[in-house]
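To: structure subgroup
Subject: Chain for Friday's discussion

All,

I'm putting the inputs and outputs inline so they're searchable in the archive.
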Amino acid sequence: MDIAFIYSEKDPASFLMQKKLKELGNFRFYKEENLLFTNICNKIDGNLIFLSKHESREKIKSICLHFTGNFDKAIYGGKDRQLSLANPLLLKNIFLEVLKEDIKEFNLTLEVTHHGPLCNKPHCFIEIGSTEKEWNNEEIASKIVNSIVRAIKKRVNWKVSIGFGGTHYCPKFNKIEAESDFALGHICPKYFIDKLDYNLFLQMINKSNIKPDYVLIDKKGTTSMQREKIKDFVEKYNGENNVLKIIKV
């Protein structure tokens, strides 16, 4: 797989992962000042992996994976109500390889689609959180980049899907990503479904380098009105000679 890594010297976790990757092979690297506001996606080819730190109020030790885009206002990069091009198979493979490292003290999690940059190349973000101590942890950085290197060599035809519901850290979809043959693409959390329109729904499908065949709905992480809204979108989409299958999880 043709991979380019995007990193920032101003981001300690990003810079450390880049350093560890350079020790493992001759990869393509692109240095940017700010990963969330970069325009690098328009300038290079290939599949992109953004190496980044993760910050949270709770300061939980975490390894986070997600795609970029905004379901509402673009406060942290990108553009209002525009999603980037996801690479669900790449993200799934990285997720599973990190799981094999059995890093018990860190919480491995998907995040819903959020923040910038707006990326027109297949991509994913991988982040280490959530304090200076974790950002500068060489052992964790090494385990993550070893996982990435293994993942980019894998060729697995997972069932590509999009997800709806739940919270920012996707507890239901984490279990699915870890234990099933579904690979999650864009995920819209419960708190954005009410603002979701058909255009954004179409972006969740079309902004994927492999078009999804499945719509996964978190039953407990959505209201009945939200589930009905998603069902209506799927029926409209399928009425145009496309086939999406809804699965409530």
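Points worth raising on Friday:
The chain has one domain: 3-248.
The radius of gyration is 17 Å.

D.
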